[in-house]
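Review form for a predicted model. The reviewer records the input and the model, then writes brief findings.
Reviewer: anonymous (R2)
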Amino acid sequence: MDQVKIGKFIAMCRKEQNLTQMMLAEKLGITDRAVSKWETGRSMPDSSVMLELCDLLSINVNELLRGERIMMEDAEKVSEELVITLKKREEEQSRTMLHLELFIGLMGTINCAILMIIGVLLWESEQIPAIVLMAVGILDFLACVVMALFVEQTAGFYECAECGHCHKPTFRQVFLARHIGRSRKMVCPACGKKSYQKKVLTQKSSSC
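Model under review:
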């Protein structure tokens, strides 16, 4: 999606409706600064206001995400293109988050190892500082583990090995599940069977 193109389209439609940025913002319950960011291509409208925004601008969601008016005969083709584009964007966001998970885990491990080594080196001469450093290292590692798990749980979906259903479990389910890499042994909410469910970036099949 071309955010600059979409922003110019929003500005054009707003002017067609004789609305200022402030007036549009008030109707949506947001700030005019947010509207300005949309129109300059610095951000996209949040999904929570997208339908109301389209209604106020007398356009549909496909036209908003396309950044242009769509003729009726082209609507089906454009809808398919937008689905593909949104799916690719979802995959990219999930992939980025999973890379972030690895980075958090790596940094937590390195920080913990450094503090533990320093603590061991100080043990004979300064036991209290050594204990503090090692405790901080362990707490930092645990905090990073929790953060990494939260990122993993948020990004993408888990796919059932039995029926192929994709779902997003709760953090508690992910935290308590046995795992091999990013595959976690959980009960599928669709078929009720327990299996090692692998992490997938998007809902890949009609059963998902």
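Findings: The CA atoms of residues 6 and 67 lie 4 Å apart.
Further findings: Helices lie at 3-16, 21-28, 32-39, 47-57, 61-66, 75-122, 127-154, 171-176.
Recommendation: see findings above.
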